[in-house]
Amino acid sequence: MANLEKLVSMEDLRRRARRRMPRVAWEFLDSGTGAETALKRNRERMDAVTMVPRMMRAARTPDTSAPLLGRTWTAPIGVAPVGLQSLMWPGIEKALAAMAAERGIPYCLSTVAGESLEDIARVNPDFWFQLYAPTQEAARKDLIRRAHDAGAKALVLTVDIPRSSRRERQRRAGVGMPPKTTPRLIADVLSRPSWALATWRRGVPTMRTLAPYVPAGDMKTMAEFTAKNLGHDLTPEAVAEIRDLWPGTFIVKGVLHPEDAEKMVEIGVDAVWVSNHGGRQVDIGCAAIDALPGIVAAVGERTEIIFDSGIASGADVARAVALGAKMCFLGRGFVWGVAALGAPGAGHAEFILRDELSNVMSQLGCHRLDELKERLA
Ligand SMILES: Cc1cc2nc3c(=O)[nH]c(=O)nc-3n(C[C@H](O)[C@H](O)[C@H](O)COP(=O)(O)O)c2cc1C
User: Fold this and answer.
1) CA of 309, closest atom in ligand 1
2) Which of 80, 236, 277, 314 qualifies as a FRET site for 161, CA 20 to 30 Å off?
3) Ligand 1 centroid – CA 308 distance (Å)
4) All residues at 6 or more sequence positions from 330 whose CB lies less than 8 Å from its CB, including other chains
5) Is a pLDDT exceeding 80 seen at residue 128?
6) Which residues are designated catalytic?
7) What does R_g of the chain's alpha carbons equal in angstroms?
8) % of the chain exceeding 70 in pLDDT
9) Which helix (H) or strand (E) is 200 found in, with range?
10) How many CB atoms lie within 10 A of CB 200?
11) What is the DSSP letter of 158?
12) Alpha-carbon distance 229 to 242, whole Å?
């Protein structure tokens, strides 16, 4: 077991995760698209957000609790949907879902995750379900019905995949579903014994939630199905139809323009999730953190604002909250935790993020999250 006292930041978890994951899985997780300018821009623009500390405020034990969608969470930190997670670390979805339930933070399962939504509901009855809407009406309606029957507390419709992205780095690394069995892949897997052993114990990863709609069931057919049928060709009318099918909390994920946010508010969403998909879709797109203030100004009074893309520390959470986010999600960050340490890494990542956030708040002289905006430089 690793010495947790030496894994004190998310970057420490990232480095250890990289050493323990097969290269092909790492490249899938870590990559952006194109020349990865959007990925780098997310980081650079986040770093450009600075705050002016106030002193003599006796803020040793700040309150990180975050109200969102009728519930108070322990911190404005959530687990974003990440597809094909079981490829990155076997059993990761259940580890993250259980950790989120125990720590009182939101957890969102991907449509293309390795576990079925019904199994995740047993581990975390408050889970949210992210929908890549299938183009076939029957599959679309059935997925929504299943999420409802399983008790999902929110439906998160992802709208930022009008088309599969080119993801050049993934292609160079031979990322595919299933990855081609080449001598290089075999050497890659054998050089990562903890991953290989865990995968051997749990079996080859697959997309369990989608299994009923892809009768052949093998990974190749499944991957072709997702590339062809999921998430594309959405219009505001199609979003409104899905809204009407879902009786509960409805969130749209992947919004960057204030007018798109306006449209979603007109449709009746409960929250707008500002995101550039972690820089994975369009390389000349703006940094997500740069889109946040405009969307907060446009619709922040009428709906709740959720944020992701580029959050890699508790300080980043403080930055996004200061700019108006009610909740910040991490995609890659939580994967680093589990890949670095196995299931206990889920809680260790959450601990680092919350502890960093709390410490930053103290240093800035903030007792509550809503004071952070007053510290913006
Ligand atoms: C490997 C990977 C797979 C992802 N899969 C999904 C997905 O299935 N559904 C979805 O809505 N977003 C998906 N995302 C986007 C994340 O939900 C989130 O928007 C993004 O990771 C945030 O950026 P961050 O990684 O910098 O935190 C994925 C991201 C990564 C890195």
Assistant:
1) 23
2) 314
3) 9
4) 77, 78, 79, 80, 308, 311, 312, 349, 353
5) yes
6) 277
7) 20
8) 100
9) helix 193-202
10) 11
11) E
12) 16
Residue 191: pLDDT band (50, 70, 90) is: very high
CA-based nearest residue to 277, from 269, 268, 286: 286
pLDDT in tens, 52-89: 999 999 999 999 999 999 999 999 999 999 998 999 99
- State pLDDT tens for residues 286-330: 999 999 999 999 999 999 999 999 999 999 999 999 999 999 999
- The pLDDT value recorded for residue 40 is 98
The answer to whether the CB of 161 falls within 8 A of the CB of 232 is yes
Place of tokens 């009428």: 302
Cα of 309 vs centre of ligand 1, distance in Å, is 8
Instruction: Please give the residue that has the higher pLDDT: either 77 or 228.
Output: 77
Q: What are the strands, taking DSSP E only, across 159-208?
A: none
**Residue 83 annotated as binding?**
yes
Ligand 1 atom closest to Cα of residue 39:
26
| Residue 56 contacts residue 299 (beta carbons within 8 Å) | no
> Where residue 203 falls among pLDDT bands split at 50, 70, 90?
confident
Ligand 1 proximal residues by C-beta, below 6 Å: 28-29, 80-83, 110, 112, 130, 158, 253, 275, 277-278, 308-311, 330-333
- Degrees to nearest 5, angle at CA 246 with 243 and 248: 105
Q: Is the pLDDT of residue 178 over 80?
A: no
Residue 131 Cα to ligand 1 middle (Å): 13
Task: Centre a 10 Å sphere on the Cβ of residue 203 and count the other Cβ atoms it contains.
Answer: 9
**The CATH number, out of the four listed (3.20.20.70, 2.60.40.1180, 1.10.490.110, 3.90.550.10), of the domain defined by the range 4-51+71-375:** 3.20.20.70
Task: Check whether 107 is labelled as a binding-site residue.
Answer: no
Rounded distance between C-alpha atoms, residue 79 and residue 130, angstroms: 12
Spans of all domains in the chain: 4-51+71-375
- pLDDT digit string, tens, across residues 4-44: 989 999 999 999 999 999 999 999 999 999 999 999 999 99
What span, in angstroms and rounded, lies between the C-alpha atoms of 48 and 37? 16
Q: How far apart are CA 216 and CA 91, in angstroms?
A: 23
**pLDDT tens digits, one per residue of 318-347:** 999 999 999 999 999 999 999 999 999 999
